[in-house]
Task: inverse folding
């Protein structure tokens, strides 16, 4: 039974307050280029660590999402008009930061015929033109299942393509409003079919009342969708208006799910209380795709 009384936050979820030299420099660059980061908009607990390492996740297509998911701190409502110069500004920011790996994500833009996929593609191409040798990872929305939108991104040839299922199938409607669990799996599978040599990645949050059997099945489903890399982290409630935390998982429990995932055949499983989609993302870019289930 889900209640609104959350368990006490454990000590292992404490994070340092951002404020180092690299953090301040990156923040200045972001503001100068009028860019958004999911690190700030989604209140990521790793922002201080990642920005000090000069890594950040750019959020394109504005900062207003057309969906209002029960877990997400990003503002929802009616988005503004597209900024067609945004891809070039992202490319300049990546250059100024001296990044070797960049992650690009977005709000959902269900108001657009292509879901914003053409802007994703333009951003990939602009970043690559301005930053030869920089690997590019994109964390895309579901594009409402429209394959031509997925193709727009695939044809721009990102090094990694991510799409998060976020939670188990039973909780999807409550956690990810307007999303569909099976549609997300189909998108991930199709992405691999369209570009077999490209890495695919997905992520889930724990702590929303899912059962162990449901977590195990979700990982099996992702493996059947030929996903290469999975991230597993603790759900943290952004505000009192969002879904409550039902359980805080221990580091040992995350280690169990990491081992379980590796036994299923994922190329890599990043699991821990503070793990998010982009956590240690730079290390994932050098991996090779996993073999299909049952191969070998």
Result:
């Amino acid at each position: 039974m889900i209640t609104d009384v959350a368990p006490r936050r454990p000590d292992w979820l404490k994070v340092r307050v951002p404020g180092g030299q690299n953090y301040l420099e990156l923040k200045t660059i972001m503001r100068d280029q009028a860019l958004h980061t999911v690190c700030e908009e989604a209140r990521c607990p790793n922002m201080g660590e990642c920005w000090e390492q000069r890594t950040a996740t750019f959020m394109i297509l504005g900062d207003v999402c057309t969906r209002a998911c029960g877990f997400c701190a990003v503002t929802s409502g009616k988005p503004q008009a597209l900024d067609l110069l945004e891809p070039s500004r992202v490319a300049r920011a990546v250059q100024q930061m001296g990044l070797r790996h960049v992650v690009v994500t977005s709000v959902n833009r269900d108001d657009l015929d292509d879901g914003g996929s053409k802007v994703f593609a333009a951003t990939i191409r602009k970043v690559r033109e301005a930053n030869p040798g920089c690997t590019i990872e994109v964390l895309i929305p579901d594009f409402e299942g429209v394959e031509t939108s997925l193709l727009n991104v695939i044809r721009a040839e990102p090094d990694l393509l991510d799409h998060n299922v976020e939670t188990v199938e039973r909780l999807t409607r409550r956690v990810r409003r307007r999303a569909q669990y099976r549609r997300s799996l189909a998108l991930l599978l199709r992405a691999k079919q369209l570009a077999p040599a490209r890495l695919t990645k997905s992520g889930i949050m724990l702590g929303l009342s899912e059962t162990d059997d449901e977590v195990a099945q979700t990982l099996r489903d992702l493996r059947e969708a030929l996903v290469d890399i999975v991230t597993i982290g603790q759900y943290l409630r952004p505000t009192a208006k969002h879904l409550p935390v039902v359980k805080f998982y221990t580091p040992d429990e995350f280690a169990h799910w990491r081992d379980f995932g590796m036994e299923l055949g994922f190329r890599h499983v990043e699991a821990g209380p503070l793990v998010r989609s982009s956590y240690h993302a730079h290390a994932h870019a050098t991996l090779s795709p996993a073999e299909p289930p049952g191969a070998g």
